[in-house]
Specification:
It is a single chain. The chain is an alpha+beta fold and about 100 residues long. It has one domain: Arc Repressor Mutant, subunit A, CATH 1.10.10. Helix content is about 55%, strand content about 15%. It has four helices and four strands. It is elongated, with a radius of gyration of 16 Å.
Length: about 100
């Protein structure tokens, strides 16, 4: 998300929200970057031993009763885990066809 701050623009239209000027968008981008860092740190604490995505999600105690939000949460966590795998921060272990994630 840091690359967004370095783009040359006057306004940005996020997919969810109103038209924002550079100053407003930078604040929102910074907030989201900080939030992602917090989530990643929490996930890394959870996966000190192998955990499935479902086990990781359960540790967040998210109150959710919709399928769409459930899929968004799952895909966001998977994205973060796979990005961390690409950076060699996380290992994926397959047991009985189920992926488990472990912090290196």
């Amino acid at each position: 998300m840091n690359f967004l701050k370095n783009l040359n623009y006057s306004y940005i239209l996020p997919s969810h929200g109103n038209l924002l000027d550079k100053e407003e968008s930078t604040k929102i981008i910074d907030y989201n970057i900080n939030r992602l860092v917090e989530i990643k740190e929490k996930i890394f604490k959870i996966i000190n031993e192998p955990k499935t995505v479902d086990q990781i999600i359960q540790n967040f105690n998210i109150e959710n009763e919709t399928l769409i939000v459930s899929y968004l949460i799952r895909s966001s966590i998977l994205n973060l885990l796979h990005e961390s795998k690409d950076k060699r921060e996380v290992e994926i272990i397959i047991k009985n066809g189920i992926p488990y994630f472990l912090k290196k």
